[in-house]
Amino acid sequence: MNSRSVHGILVFLLLCGVFTPVAFADDPLPTFTIAYFNGPCPAGWDNTSLASASGRSLLPTPRGGGAGGFIGEPLGSQQAPSHQHAKATGSITSPAKQFVLIDGCCNGSLGRSGTYTMDGSAQKGNSSLPYIQFNACVKIAPPNQETAPAGLLTFSLVPCAGPYSEYTAASGRYVVGLNPNGQPAATFGGSNLQPSEIRRHSHGMNGSLNFPSKDIAGASGCCAHNYAASGTFNFTGVTEVDTSNSMYDSAVQAPYYTAFFCEVR
Amino acid sequence: MLKRKPFVFVLGLLAFGLFAVFGASSVVAQGLPSGMIFFVATENCPSGTSPATDAAGRILVVTTDTSQIGKTYGTPMADQKDNTHTHAGSMTVNLPENDIAGASSCCNGQATTKGAHTATLTSASSTTDLPFIQLLVCVVN
């Protein structure tokens, strides 16, 4: 090889370095790794195959589950996660009042005293679930020969293998960014999600109800019985799950896309 | 010595060229692609990476629209504490009729009418009951 040829190769390499800074994927992450990115997918990564994940949180696969499953209605950008409780039941007791009159015909305007069930609902509202949006990409190129930092945690479409092992502490749990001075890897909230589970919750629906007065031309006393009293009385209640109109009734809008969650050993 | 200088120079250029191609500029510390976000179960991100502070107290949601990256919704959760929420709602009771042999007029208002009676209310607060794990979010510089 003469000096002119060497110079030609050097110029070629230099030009490649200057004008094509990302010649190909050059990172140690295995093919089918999924990671969030705060920008476009780099070379060797792609997000077109993750269209089903858009608007959803990547969820470490629940125990016994697989990758690529998704649940919930995806969120639009910065959309408030909402939900409703279409059904609530409760109970109220109306004390009895008596009049110096006779039970029976023909004034049917009064209510009967007693303990009764109540029905109700909780309107669609904000779920107060905070989130931040990032791109997500899947690795389509093969890894290089380097090794990723020990302790690195990210997702994968295929089971963790080689120097990666599944981080089971996170299985079926949403990953929340650690607060400053927070305890790393602490778990909180409900129990781990099961495969395909839609997690629901409920609210107390206690309150008070004001029964308006209904005038009657008769004194209080014997012997017309069991008329529902006017006034304000407390009741108890709780929301219940009603999926007749929506399969996500009583579930916070927290759509997820499952993937194996792998840790570099 | 003077004869070896061109050789060293050529080697240097060759090394630089190789680095420019195979050590692409998108790859930084630990060989990870710039902008990649990952998690660690420790208090500090590895060298060459930085904590994604805006992610603290938040779950991460995928957006394929790169113009929407980094945008947030809601108030971050405190350490190990799910946020709570309430709903506006209503509850209704339907009182059955109880007839009486007396006119509806003045002046005893101790009873109430039959039929539906509805109360509006704000529900008790509740968490989402979703399960969480908190991990440090790191972004490759």
Brief overview:
The complex is a heterodimer of chains A (265) and B (141). Chain A is mostly beta strands. Chain A has one helix and 17 strands.
Write the layout of secondary structure elements.
The complex is a heterodimer of chains A (265) and B (141).
Chain A: H1 3-19, E1 33-37, E2 45-46, E3 57-60, E4 70-71, E5 82-94, E6 96-99, E7 114-126, E8 131-139, E9 153-156, E10 164-166, E11 174-177, E12 187-189, E13 207-211, E14 214-216, E15 224-228, E16 231-240, E17 256-264
Chain B: H1 5-22, E1 36-40, E2 49-51, E3 59-62, E4 72-73, E5 84-85, E6 88-95, E7 108-111, E8 115-122, E9 126-127, E10 131-140
Antiparallel strand pairs in B: 1-10, 2-10, 5-9, 6-8
Chain oligomer state: heterodimer
The helicity of chain A comes to under 10%
Number of DSSP-assigned strands of chain B:
10
Major sheet of chain A: 8 strands, mixed
The structure class of chain B reads mainly beta
